[in-house]
Amino acid sequence: MFLLYVLLLSLSGADTQEHTLSDTIYKELIEDVGVLKYKHDLLVKRIQDLEISQGQVRLDLKECIDDVKRISIDKVQENTVVQEKIASHEKNLELLKSVLHSTRKNIESVYTALYHQKLLTQYLRGNEDTLARLSKLETHLSAISQAPCVAGFYSSTGLAPCTLCEIGSYQASVGSTSCTPCGVGSYQASAGSSFCTPCEAGSYQASVGSSSCTLCEMGSYQTSVGSTSCTPCEVGSYQASTGSISCTACDAGTSTTAMGSTADTDCTVVSSCPSGYHRLGLKCYAIIRARFTWLEAQETCRIFGGYLAEIKDSSEYSQIKKWLAQVTIPFSDLWIGGSDLLIEGQWVYPGSTASLNYTKWAGKQPDNYQNNEHCLELNRGVDFDYNDKSCSSKVNPLCESRLT
Questions:
Q1: Quick one: which of 196, 227, 235, 306 is 20 to 30 A from 393 by CA?
Q2: Which value, in Å, is the radius of gyration of the alpha carbons in the chain?
């Protein structure tokens, strides 16, 4: 092994030796082979001597056993000299076996060393490109020691040694120089991860690089995974616990008065809507199946005990949109109460001169197309966003009524 180590040290300077093996190293190899062969001959001689000694011991032991056979059992028990001789011979035999085993192991080691030395000598003798091959092998081993960072790890170069991705981050690729913070709606509680976990239903995360998600607060819920927020309980329901995936409906004949209620005591006895109307919070709504102009729609709603809907805020608008998505009767766009018939560009509800306090116009609206669009509708084609439309167009009215 020492000679192999010396040889490798010599080969590491391959670039300066111009791929030529040193004569000095070759001579040393030949001398070392001669020394090993000499040691081998000595060990073989030693084994032969030991085998002769072992044979003599066996003969002595056999003679002793024959002597014992010639003596009666009583004589053997009394003859301690014979017993000691037998024990001594047996002990010597075991010792010789041990020495022989050890010697054979040494011989095997010598044979192995001689075999490798012979192979190495034969390989190097007359082989001009050996150093170049060993140099390539050294380069390959160096490349292995500079392996790229695996997924979940990183370094400034992307190569070993690498560092675990911190909690709240991940790296799915190999050979990376940084880790990526977990996005909103996800988290990672462990270091060295190749992915982030979506927030479970009933929880959310609005920040990046998080190690956990936040449970939905009382009065809210979330049915989806990977969410960035929770939804307030609708009017008519409540939630008294955190981390919920649904809200509890109020008992029949009772309702809450606002979204986000947190206790059953928020459910109180309420009045009912007129026949044909659907209750949303403290208001009632109905879609008229027939289509009318805007002025005809006003009169139709009055006949049915109401008026064209007047949406006051984003909460009311969201409730209406959610309800409309569930309605099964066919309808087109929907008239609501706003118009700018009195003053162009000033949108008001009937009986009021104040501008609408809430609007949700579709893109590039209102545009008063052909200077003839002065009435307000919910445009179904753009997710019920507001749109100005010709008042003579015929669409379905959305009527509103108060609780009775």
A1: 306
A2: 49
67-101 pLDDT per residue, tens: 666 655 555 555 666 677 767 767 766 776 676 66
In eight-state DSSP terms, residue 369 is G
In the structure encoding, which two tokens stand for residue 216, read together?
A: 């939905």
Alpha helices for 71-147 (secondary structure H): 73-78, 80-124, 130-145
Residue 90 tokens read as: 């047996």
Could you tell me the domains of the chain? 21-127 (1.10.287), 146-215 (2.10.50.10), 271-402 (3.10.100.10)
| DSSP character string of 169-236 | EE--SSS-SS-EEPPTTEE--SSS-SS-EEPPTTEE--SSS-SS-EEPPTTEE--SSS-SS-EEPPTT
Q: Tell me: the pLDDT tens digits for 349-373?
A: 998 878 898 999 999 999 999 999 9
Choose among 322, 329, 311: nearest CA to 400: 311
- Please report where in the chains the tokens 């006051």 appear, as a residue: 312
Spatial separation of the C-alpha atoms in residues 368 and 89, rounded to whole Å: 125
